[in-house]
């Protein structure tokens, strides 16, 4: 007899704004991820289920969602491991609506990313996330000439920022309690990206000062309350909270 995995999934109608939770049974198979289970539901049970995805390899960050109350990437989360894997400690309580009698032992609960407006089902509006990301200008502004310091970086310098470079801008760190209470907060991703470029020896001094000025504004680095939830949910080990602390400790405000 085919073994089934029970899912309890958050649903929101983009037209009526109605919020509800629906149950689905998905045939289990070895190696199935949460994303593959959602594909099964969409293909076989309810074609209207909305969610984002792209690479399916945990490098694009598109499929961020909340699985059993833990923000994670659906493409890297094994269905078989959800109930047994160690959960990050001291996460905030994420509430998206009244959950109807969730059987925590047997049902996998799927909800959107926290602290973002839900457009439909598991799809959230990330415009604020990207607006703050663009605001810190996390990119090089030099004209390309393939000459040092534009293209040259020592191995030690590259290693010092490697963990920051690994950020895939998935938005999981938006689960920070500061983002929940302050809609003007830049958020951990933007500030970690800022630290990555401030610390890059190839950045022009003018651009470095511009970024420093922006991240020391009221709703950026000073607004961080050092919960470090961002560190605990980051799927790539970027440690955004530590990056924000690095800005506090190493990079002064530039007027």
Short description:
This protein is α+β, with helices and mostly antiparallel strands.
Share of helical residues: 25-40%
Specify the number of helices: 8
Spatial gap, N to C terminus: 69 Å
Largest sheet: 5 strands, mixed
Number of strands: 7
Overview of this structure, please?
With 255 residues, the protein is an alpha+beta fold. The protein has 2 domains: 4-123, Roll (Ubiquitin-like (UB roll)); 127-250, Alpha-helical ferredoxin (Fumarate Reductase Iron-sulfur Protein, Chain B, domain 2, Orthogonal Bundle). It has helices spanning 34-45, 127-135, 155-165, 177-181, 188-198, 205-215, 229-233, 240-250, and strands spanning 4-12, 19-27, 64-67, 70-73, 107-111, 118-120, 123-124. Helix 2 (127-135) packs parallel to helix 5, helix 5 packs antiparallel against helix 6 and helix 5 crosses helix 8 (240-250). The longest helix has 12 residues, at 34-45. The relative contact order is 0.13.
């Amino acid at each position: 007899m085919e073994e089934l995995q029970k899912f309890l999934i958050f649903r929101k109608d983009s037209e009526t704004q109605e919020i509800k939770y629906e149950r689905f049974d998905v045939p289990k198979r070895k190696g199935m991820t949460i994303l593959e289970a959602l594909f099964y539901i969409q293909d076989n049970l309810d074609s209207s289920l909305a969610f984002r995805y792209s690479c399916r390899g945990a490098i694009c960050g598109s499929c961020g969602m909340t699985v059993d109350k833990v923000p994670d990437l659906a493409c890297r989360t094994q269905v078989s491991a959800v109930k047994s894997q160690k959960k990050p400690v001291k996460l905030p309580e994420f509430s998206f609506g009244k959950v109807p009698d969730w059987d925590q032992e047997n049902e996998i609960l799927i909800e959107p990313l926290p602290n973002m407006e839900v457009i439909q089902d598991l799809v959230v509006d990330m415009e604020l996330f990207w607006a703050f990301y663009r605001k810190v200008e996390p990119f090089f502004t030099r004209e390309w000439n393939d000459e040092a310091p534009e293209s040259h970086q020592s191995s030690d310098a590259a290693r010092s920022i490697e963990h920051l470079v690994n950020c895939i801008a998935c938005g999981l760190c938006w689960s920070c309690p500061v983002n929940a209470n302050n809609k003007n907060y830049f958020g951990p991703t933007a500030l970690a990206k800022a630290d990555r470029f401030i610390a890059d020896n190839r950045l022009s001094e003018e651009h470095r000062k511009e970024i420093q000025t922006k991240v020391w504004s009221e709703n950026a680095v000073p607004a961080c309350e050092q919960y470090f939830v961002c560190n605990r949910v980051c799927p790539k080990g970027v440690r955004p909270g530590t990056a924000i602390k690095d800005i506090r400790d190493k990079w002064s405000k530039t007027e």
